[in-house]
Design a protein that fits this description.
By secondary structure, this protein is mainly beta. The chain contains 3 helices and 24 strands. Strands 1-24-23-22 form a 4-stranded antiparallel beta sheet, with no helix packed on it. The chain starts with 5 loop residues before the first strand and ends with a strand.
């Protein structure tokens, strides 16, 4: 008998600094044709992982585009990705204070950045989302506000300021737009999710008023299905949280990953690596007296380790970008819950 909203399903990805694989991925977006575009950030010591990888839910690989740099179509600190219904890819870069725009073939189209005449001012842009009218919603992390931008780059709406009150933010990160047009923001520094109308009016907040075990700690992203269930990457707790439309805490997941198709291909081609893996203790008994949550996730391969973003895939699957494991965990939605 099914008694949970989400069940673990499968994994996509493998650790790789270039080509087919992820190196510190930070976000994923679903194109109108269901192709997945995975945003890689790499890290400051080795930026080779900066790329956008194209694949599908079956792990079919279609190639990569973009790279590290400050030229048109490149990124320094890519942060979030979204794809509009008219087939444009929007990517934020919090270092360059820029939004880069591509077509679905990976061709650079244009950019928005402060001072280039686009009409939108950006200060460390983080999360990005598009709505049914192809307007673009940007979390301006450095300004502690939310901006709605037209497809032409003109600011249509701006709301929020630094603080911990209703409609205020402290280092906001992820954003999503529900089917009904409501706006959900992962208010990272305030350990909560805030919900607004599409005109910026505050509706409610979630995540910091549960029991201690369910409280959010530095939530990084949120996705909402057609029934109003919220799926939150609880970055600070290394978990995925499920919250019902009424705000009640439904499920708390630590991750239950297995081997991906790409990882199995690698192991099949590298018998020494396969043998070393077989001898490793990938699920040790947790030393809860001496290991904090980060160490527990580090030592346990199946667990989420700094899950950073989440995407709803047709109200059927939930895709979680498992940043420090260089993979995506995919979970199945149980509609009868």
């Amino acid at each position: 008998m099914v008694n949970e909203r989400l069940d673990y399903n499968f994994v996509i990805g493998v650790a790789a600094m270039e080509g087919r694989g992820f190196y510190y991925p930070v976000d994923v977006a679903v194109a109108p044709d269901d192709k997945l575009f995975v945003l890689g950030r790499g890290h400051d010591g080795d930026p080779r992982g900066v790329q956008i990888l194209m694949c599908d839910i079956e792990s079919e690989y279609y190639g990569v585009f973009s790279s590290h740099g400050s030229d048109d179509g490149q990124f320094i600190w890519p942060t979030s990705i979204s794809i509009s219904g008219d087939g444009l890819i929007y990517v934020t870069d919090e270092y360059l204070n820029r939004i880069s725009i591509f077509d679905l073939d990976g061709k650079f189209v244009r950019k928005w950045e402060s001072g280039n005449g686009s009409g939108v001012k950006l200060l460390k842009p983080a999360g990005i989302a598009t709505d049914k009218e192809n307007s673009v919603w940007v979390v301006d992390n450095g300004a502690s506000n939310i901006k709605k931008v037209s497809p032409q780059g003109e600011t249509l709406l701006e709301f929020g300021e630094l603080g911990d009150g209703q409609g205020q933010f402290n280092m906001p990160w992820g954003i999503t737009i529900s089917n009904s047009g409501d706006v959900y923001v992962a208010d990272w520094g305030n350990d909560r999710i805030q919900k607004f109308t599409n005109t910026g009016e505050f509706i409610g907040e979630y995540g910091n008023d549960y029991s201690n075990s369910n409280n959010l700690r530095r939530p990084s992203d949120i996705s909402v299905d057609s029934n109003g269930y919220m799926y939150v990457t609880d970055w600070g707790n290394h978990r995925l949280k499920v919250i019902a439309a009424d705000g009640s805490a439904i499920q708390d997941l630590r991750g239950d990953a297995s081997i991906s198709k790409w990882a199995q291909d690698f192991l099949n081609s590298n018998p020494d690596e396969n043998a070393a893996r077989a001898e490793s203790d990938l699920e040790p008994e947790l030393d809860t007296d001496n290991w904090d949550l980060n160490e527990q996730s580090y030592h346990t391969e199946k667990f989420f380790w700094s899950p950073i973003s989440v995407e709803n895939y047709h109200d059927d699957l939930v895709i979680v970008v498992d940043r420090n494991r260089h993979r995506m965990q995919v979970l199945k939605i149980n509609e009868n819950i």
